[in-house]
């Protein structure tokens, strides 16, 4: 079928500034695929009018209707499909014709009109994601305030991999209610809780035009978490006069999606929207499509596309400011983040994990989830976990890492960066038998799929080399190197040669454990091009066992020759005796 706005127009030079070009009027025809250059993250949102026979319900047989919608999904190569005013029979049939899609269904009522599609009269909305069902976590909730006697409205979401990244995709169908702002405050509160920092795609029938006050909470977003951009917000052919006069780059406007109820022939109102979180997506685009499925014109199908924002993580940087940061485990089991200041010092700590890390191996080096942020790795007991960085160093729901045939309980595990130079994060694990490289595979479910590579033998046992450090790439060859502190205090440098055993080390310094209980490295903390060393000092006082002294944190800048360190500088006074590890 012809499209109200052609995606081919997006490829015109200067489109980013000019928006989509005008196109022909809507007439039912055949579906059309996405033109070359369409961004890879693609969504469909469509109010299918499944139950209202007198107004718009399709007169097609179920199989014909489902096959027709399947064509639209396939032509667009949609990652996420949000469908409103849907009957359970329609949903069940779509699951059959879309075998590569996981489904989430929610219903708050029944409708007699749904009998056309099957015995189950449940009426609600569905969300379909192009992913295995096992990798999708569905959730839904009513968002209509208590005490309302009309139809309850809801939001349905899925945490799922979309183009290789974990995303929260949500569909909704709101009511028109001036006093409750169309339920949008409750909608955003629920999504913020579920997203917990994940990229968000939100689409559906909002029953409000862009300039209505009902949409204010959505356009305003939630500070620091949900800042939304509307996929049609840069299409200048639909800009209001005020936006044109102001020379705005974005406008609360966009292509109409709903038929004029008086004439039944003209689309004049925009009530269907697709939003993407600004910090996670770019190149937003949208178009409307007449399906011809309903017996009278009703809603247009909305096809939207975007690309993920590209981030290049800096090794050791958790907060996203390009400066390397420090993680510390306190003896009460809490996890502290000390944001780097770029001068070899660190800001006041933030608690990013309140408990459960006592005795754990906690480290950070590398993006394990593929979202451009460095993540945290933790070996806790016999289990290995990835804690996704959801922004500013905050941690999302942990993800289990691959199993080890002998378990992880007796291994010392450290995230060190890309040791083998394949562009993906790696781990090293030390056991009684030696040091091993575990090569990682990045994704929404990060794994360690390949056999471990022996990097060193029994000389790496904890009694001889108690501390393994991750300084990053010290010689500029694109591979992460290692430091180790020996029992006698020698700080040794092991240059990576890829997925093969390490060569003999170079001694960089001496830092006896009795005087310096903890050693750590975050890479180049003062941004002079050389990896630096962090040490704690032993508690000082009248009684070193339980005395009043609490130990300090010192910084040793890497030398210009890369063969040692400059004089130590105290950068943290007091309190470091209560810290179990610094990474």
How would you describe what is shown here?
There is one protein chain. With 583 residues, the chain is mostly beta strands. It is 9% helix and 31% strand. It has helices at 15-18, 62-76, 88-97, 184-195, 216-220, 241-246; strands at residues 41-47, 80-87, 102-110, 122-129, 137-142, 154-162, 165-173, 200-205, 228-230, 258-259, 267-269, 272-277, 281-289, 301-308, 326-330, 335-338, 350-353, 361-363, 376-380, 383-387, 399-400, 412-417, 426-431, 434-439, 453-456, 467-472, 481-485, 490-494, 506-510, 519-520, 533-536, 553-556, 569-572, 579-582. A six-stranded mixed β-sheet has the order 3-4-2-1-14-13. It has a six-stranded mixed β-sheet with strand order 5-6-7-8-12-9. Strands 17-16-15-34 form a four-stranded antiparallel β-sheet, with no helix packed on it. Helix 2 (62-76) packs across helix 3. It is elongated, with a radius of gyration of 28 Å. Residues 1-30 and 542-548 have low confidence and may be disordered.
Morphology call: elongated
Into which percentage range does the β-strand content fall?
25-35%
- Which structural class is indicated by helix and strand composition? mainly beta
- Kindly state the number of beta strands: 34
- Largest sheet at a glance? 6 strands, mixed
Oligomerization state of this entry?
Answer: single chain
Gist of the model:
The chain is mainly beta and 583 residues long. Helices cover 9% and strands 31% of the residues.
């Amino acid at each position: 079928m012809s499209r109200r706005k052609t995606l081919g127009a997006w490829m015109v030079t200067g489109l980013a500034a000019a928006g989509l070009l005008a196109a022909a009027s809507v007439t039912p025809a055949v579906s059309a695929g996405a033109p070359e250059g369409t961004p890879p993250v693609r969504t469909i949102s469509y109010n299918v009018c499944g139950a209202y026979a007198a107004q718009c319900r399709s007169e097609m047989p179920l199989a014909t209707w489902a096959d027709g919608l399947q064509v639209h999904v396939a032509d667009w190569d949609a990652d996420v499909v949000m469908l409103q005013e849907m009957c359970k029979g329609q949903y069940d049939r779509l699951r059959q014709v879309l075998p590569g899609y996981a489904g989430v269904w929610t219903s708050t009522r029944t409708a007699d009109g749904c009998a056309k599609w099957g015995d189950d009269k449940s009426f609600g909305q569905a969300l379909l994601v192009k992913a295995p069902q096992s990798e999708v976590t569905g959730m839904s909730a009513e968002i209509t305030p208590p005490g309302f006697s009309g139809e309850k409205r809801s939001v349905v979401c899925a945490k799922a991999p979309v183009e290789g990244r974990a995303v929260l995709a949500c569909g909704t169908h709101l009511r028109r209610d001036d006093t409750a702002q169309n339920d949008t405050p409750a909608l955003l509160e629920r999504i913020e809780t579920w997203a917990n920092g994940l990229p968000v795609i939100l689409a559906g029938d909002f029953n409000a035009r862009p300039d209505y006050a009902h949409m204010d909470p959505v356009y305003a977003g939630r500070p620091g978490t949900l800042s939304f951009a509307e996929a049609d917000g840069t299409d200048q052919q639909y800009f209001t006069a005020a936006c044109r006069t102001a020379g705005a780059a974005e406008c609360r406007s966009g292509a109409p999606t709903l038929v004029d109820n008086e004439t039944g022939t003209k689309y004049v109102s925009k009530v269907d929207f697709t939003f993407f979180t600004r910090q996670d997506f770019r190149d937003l685009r949208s178009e409307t499509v007449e399906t011809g499925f309903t017996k009278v014109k009703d809603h247009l199908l909305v096809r939207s596309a975007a690309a993920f924002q590209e981030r290049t993580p800096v090794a050791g940087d958790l907060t996203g400011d390009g400066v390397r940061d420090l993680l510390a485990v306190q003896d009460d089991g809490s996890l502290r983040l000390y944001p780097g200041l770029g001068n070899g010092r660190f800001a006041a700590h933030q608690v990013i994990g309140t408990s459960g890390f006592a005795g754990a191996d906690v480290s950070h080096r590398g993006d394990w989830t593929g979202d451009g942020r460095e993540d945290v790795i933790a070996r806790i007991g016999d289990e290995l976990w990835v804690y996704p960085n959801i922004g500013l160093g905050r941690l999302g729901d942990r993800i289990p890492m691959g199993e080890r045939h002998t378990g992880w309980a007796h291994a010392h595990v450290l995230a060190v960066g890309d040791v083998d130079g394949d562009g993906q994060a790696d781990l090293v694990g030390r056991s009684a038998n030696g040091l091993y490289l575990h090569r990682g595979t990045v994704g929404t479910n990060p794994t360690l799929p390949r056999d471990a590579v022996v990097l060193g033998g029994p000389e790496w046992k904890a009694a001889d080399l108690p501390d393994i450090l991750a300084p990053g790439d010290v010689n500029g060859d694109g591979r992460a190197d290692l430091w180790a502190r020996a029992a006698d205090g020698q700080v040794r440098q092991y240059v990576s040669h890829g997925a093969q055993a390490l060569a003999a080390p170079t001694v960089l310094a001496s830092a006896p454990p009795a005087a310096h209980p903890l050693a750590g490295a975050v890479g180049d903390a003062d941004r002079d091009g050389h990896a630096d060393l962090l040490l704690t000092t032993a508690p000082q006082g009248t009684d070193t066992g339980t005395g009043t002294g609490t130990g300090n944190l010192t910084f040793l800048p890497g030398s210009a020759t890369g063969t040692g360190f400059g004089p130590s500088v105290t950068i943290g006074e007091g309190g470091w005796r209560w810290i179990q590890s610094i990474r």
